[in-house]
Amino acid sequence: MKIGFDAKRALHNHRGLGNYSRTLIKSLDKFFPEHQYQLYSPKVKDEEFIKWSESLSPSCKTISPQDYLSKKFPSVWRSLLLNNELKKNELDVYHGLSHELPPGIASENFLKVVTIHDLLFLQFPENFSWIDRQTYFKKFSYSVKSADIVVAICEQTKRDIIEYLKVPEEKIHVVYQSCSENFYELIDEQNLDLVKEKYSLENPFVFHVASMEPNKNTLGIVKAFKKISKEIDVNLVLVGRGKDYKDKVINYIKENGLEERVKILDNILTSELPALYQLAELFVFPSFYEGFGIPIIEALFSRTPVITSKGSCFPESGGPGSRYIDPHNLDELADAMKEILLSESLKKQMAQEGHEFVQKFHWKNTSKDLMDLYFTHL
Length: 378
Hints:
The protein is α/β, with parallel strands linked by helices. It folds into two domains: 2-178 and 362-377, Rossmann fold (3-Layer(aba) Sandwich); 181-360, Rossmann fold (3-Layer(aba) Sandwich). It has helices spanning 16-31, 47-54, 68-72, 74-88, 120-123, 130-146, 155-165, 189-198, 218-228, 244-255, 273-279, 294-301, 314-318, 330-341, 344-357, 363-377, and strands at 2-6, 36-40, 60-63, 93-96, 111-116, 149-152, 172-174, 205-209, 235-239, 262-265, 282-285, 306-309, 323-325. The strands form two sheets. It has a seven-stranded parallel beta sheet, with helices on both faces. The longest helix has 17 residues, at 130-146. The protein is globular, with a radius of gyration of 21 Å.
């Protein structure tokens, strides 16, 4: 079978959509090497992504624009010209991994699949400009209408697609995403110590990683931590890029004299994240909304107990061993952190239950679910 992927984010994006794409592609390549995979993307320049693409088997081929116009305007190639490229390559399946399918694809004979991760622009319109909301709605609507299969990354996203985009339920299939295999195994003490020393992590710490945007509730984490900071000898470590909202977080830390207790790490290497998760006493992720919440399963694979939000997709990704709180209630978050941090037996129990639960998201299982879905609809 010949399967094509929209690989722009796999080869250009360091965040969630890029991680999803890379993990999906690499897992299929690993567990189903008998198929051919074509990765459609503008030319790759980032060394990290070049190395990643070189780690794939010969079954994976990257296809980038070749003529002058397409190289000069890769966004035009990816949107207006890509369908001709797909038709020429005689695909069996084309999968848009990040909400999009190219114009004109609806009439093609190969199986058309699109993954919808979340509908944040409809759930939190105040965080998006008017023009962005209109653009996203047009793109998403076209994609779900043109696709033969709409993949939702969790049951909550499936419900949102039905409600907001009016897609028939029978067209939507939930295929859970996984995380990088780098989180699956324990790291030896020597390498843990190297990361600890590099970032001066002398004290035990609570950990959080996410882009610093309002819906991630990073400021809420810092405020809740302040409530218990005098009662526990544990620090808070934050990892995430951001702009205005990140500035608010930094200003709050300074204004409340938390500089010695709250550390924001910038320019973390992807390869160092598993060590940071495993070094942490506790992972907190009180987001207001997520499509799925990959950091939650990264923490669970890392055998780190998790506090996350009630409702939405969070119980799907966190399982029965995680602690759930109202993300608007900072006292509840503070109390949960304090209780878990002060109990070694509770931390151990949560870590063990979480690690057992998260195996359902192992990439061997998620890749099989996706391949089965392809074959069922061919």
